[in-house]
Amino acid sequence: MTYETAEVTEATGETVPATGLAAGRVAHKAGGRLIVDGITLTPRPGTTLGLLGPNGSGKSTLLRLLSGVLAPASGVVTLDGTPLPRLGRRETARRLAVVDQHASTQVELTVREVVALGRVPHRRPWSATTAADERAVEDALDRTSLTDRAGQSWHTLSGGERQRAHIARALAQAPRELLLDEPTNHLDIQHQLDLLNLIASLPVTTVIALHDLNLAAMFCDEILVLKEGRAYAHGTPAEVITERLIAEVYGVRARVTPAADPTDPLDHPSVRFLRSPPFPGPAGS
Amino acid sequence: MSTGRTAAPDAVRSDGPGDVRLDDPGGVRRRLRDRLRTALLTLAGLAVLFLSLAFAITLGPADISVPDVWSAVAAHLGWGEAELTPIRDGIVWNLRMPRTVLAAVCGAGLAVCGVVLQSLLRNPLADPFVLGVSSGASTGAVAVVVLGVGGGVLTVSAGAFIGAVLSFSLVLFLSHTLGDTADRVILSGVAAMQLFSALTSFVVLTAADAETTRGVLFWLLGSLSGAAWTDVWMCAAVLFVALAVCLLHARALDAFAFGQDAAATLGVHVARVRLILLCTTALLTAALVSSAGAIGFVGLVLPHAARAVVGAGHPRLLPVTALAGAVFLIWVDTLARTVLDPQEVPVGVVTSLIGVPAFVVVLYRTRKTT
């Protein structure tokens, strides 16, 4: 039962890594309250980092800070060592893509048009579609198995297909970093697993906010647990997902079964929740 | 590889980079077809526009033919000898021509404003008038005409322009202090519209005599009857600059489909683009309203019609909507000045009669999709 506390992760945030996405002590205030309070994270390139935490713990805000949509009140988000504001919106969008929780539109668009939005940061005004744009769109449609739906209206898609279309759009951006905010919400279990399998198989650095502890344990290489805007725990699923942590962060009782074979990368701990009144628990560390 | 299969876990793991459809490598054929279609549509649109201009000018009490129109235009552009009598030439060149061209410019401009505002504010009912610009312009013009504000130095157009900019500033200020979301901009527009309409009514009812009231009312309802070449040039110049600015931001407008945050993550400077485009549409509307009064619903109806034909991509949608708006208003104005001949119906009345049912249809359709 070892996990790093917020203080420990903060101490490592002094130097900014020169490769990939990194956040150094980012904070965000809203209504006088700290929504995100000094979070440092440096996902290893090519891996999947899961963000866990109860509602209002700051997962979505942290993702918005990482994408540069929100400017941090303090701290810095960098890509290859360059702070996002210095990199510029367009350059950022050429390598970092975002899939939101419930992105919807009233505009009548085909699936291909939605995916082609991913090429916006790669194109100059007035310029026509290039073969590279076309290839990126077809490739993204193919990876998400949406090629057959390409000509269809976006509004005719099911919830799972819409999320896949958004992921295809993100892939068309040709990103090296992918941020996802609870992409599996409202999907049935098969579509949840399909979607996360797809995401985990992508050769990009992924930061993904999830609600489901079991899915996080299955698909994430590392997990960062947030509580009240602070980093509460950070480590591999086996290190982080423990009965004590679940009680402390979520206030519920659970049984955690460790991976049967700790050397198998596809094995993972699993969580079983227990019916009980809320566990009082200590107030955190 | 995995083309056409549903997402089984192993199917989506395939990561062959060049996985495009073999029957159309790189989508070359589709791209060519798209460009051809756009070119043909634009050419057809331009042809319809010029034919509409020529035919609309021939309609009216004086008997004018298309060749007459052509020879008058040629004579004035220095391409040929004047063949018409001075009176007939005057009817073509000084009365019907500026009016019809102004109708085209206003139709195009209002429709473009509609496209931009609907996309920017993510509201299918947005229209230049929602911003309250037309009400502000009306108040400015009425202040000049009725109250004599400006001491004879300010023209009606200048007054309208100042009023439009003032009301737009109010809308921007209100929406900014209220949180700057899409619905706040629209609500601020509604508030500004009510305020300036009330001011206009107050001025007209307390200060104007019956004759002035009649003139102001006609203008308030939207009318192209007073069109002069100076109006045409001013509006056309503003239209071309505004259209160029909008086309420059066409892809950014595409990116707004899924909201401001999504646009931001697609590399769009949301605040900057919004400010540029809102200012552009407001200034364009002000120019049009100062020349032709408050012609409503063109900006609401035409974008939806154009989207149904060419889809939602703005690089194509903007020019097509402009063409459609131009042709639409040419014919609506022709209808307005001929249907009750010799009396004239303000063109704004006719656009409202067409626009209100269309408004209901748009409302009904968005009710179904959400």
From TrEMBL, chain A:
InterPro entries: AAA+_ATPase, ABC_transporter-like_ATP-bd, P-loop_NTPase. Residues 259-285 are annotated as: Disordered. The keyword Iron does not apply. It holds the Pfam family ABC_tran. The keyword Endoplasmic reticulum does not apply. Residues 21-253 form the ABC transporter domain. It comes from the Bacteria. PROSITE patterns: ABC_TRANSPORTER_2. Signal peptide: none annotated. Keywords: ATP-binding, Nucleotide-binding. This is Sugar ABC transporter substrate-binding protein. It comes from Streptomyces lasiicapitis.
UniProtKB/TrEMBL annotation, chain B:
Residues 1-25 are annotated as: Disordered. The chain crosses the membrane at residues 39-60, 101-121, 128-147, 153-174, 186-208, 228-248, 283-305, 345-364. Pfam families: FecCD (PF01032). SUPFAM superfamilies: ABC transporter involved in vitamin B12 uptake, BtuC. Keywords: Cell membrane, Membrane, Transmembrane, Transmembrane helix, Transport. CDD domains: TM_ABC_iron-siderophores_like. Residues 12-25 have a biased composition (Basic and acidic residues). It is a multi-pass membrane protein. Gene3D superfamilies: ABC transporter involved in vitamin B12 uptake, BtuC. It is found in: Cell membrane. Its main location: membrane. Belongs to the binding-protein-dependent transport system permease family. FecCD subfamily. This is ABC transporter permease. The lineage of its organism: Bacteria, Bacillati, Actinomycetota, Actinomycetes, Kitasatosporales.
